[in-house]
Each structure stands twice: as structure tokens, then as C-alpha cells.
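Now for a typical sample entry:
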Amino acid sequence: MLNLFSGFGTSKIKSALRRDGVIVDVRNVHEYDQGRVRGSIHIPIDRISVSLERIRQMNKPIVVCAAGDSRSSEAVKILKQNGIKDVYNGGSWERVLRLMNHL
């Protein structure tokens, strides 16, 4: 399958998950309440910039959002611009949930 999004590499995400990566869900409250990866940390996209220090302390943050959504890409870009280099774009939270079930 062709990978169209930088940072969406399945092997990289699985590796980060195996190394206790922290899942950061950037969807809004309503979306998060409808379903989520157990143990994920909810930081809506509009709170990413003010949560930099909190995220900097996390082990291998894996940013997720809704299916086909660009919020995870936007969040990863903000984090990398602020010196957080070891961060992964997980894409859809449901995709990451499926990956976790196949580790």
C-alpha cells in the first residue's frame, strides 16, 4: 500500500508503541468522548502550543486524530517546529488502535 503521508509509516508507529510511546489525541472533546484509544492523552489541536512542555516530557508521542483528518499532521508540524523531534504522526486513532491489537 502506498504511504501518502509522511510519518504514517506502520513500522515506525508499531516500533514507537512497542517502546511505550504515548498516544496524544488532538480531536475535540465531543470526538474524543465518542471513542478513543485506552490510555491516550487528550490534548485538542488548539491546545498543542500551550502544552509543549507537557508533551516534551512524553515518551515518543504518537499524535492521532479522526480518519482522513489533517490535525495530526498539523500537531506534529507544531511539535517539530518547537524542537520535539521524536514524535510520530499516527493518523486516525482507529488505525492506531488496530495496530495496537496486532503488536
Observations:
- Residues 1-7 have pLDDT under 50 and may be disordered.
- The longest helix spans residues 71-81.
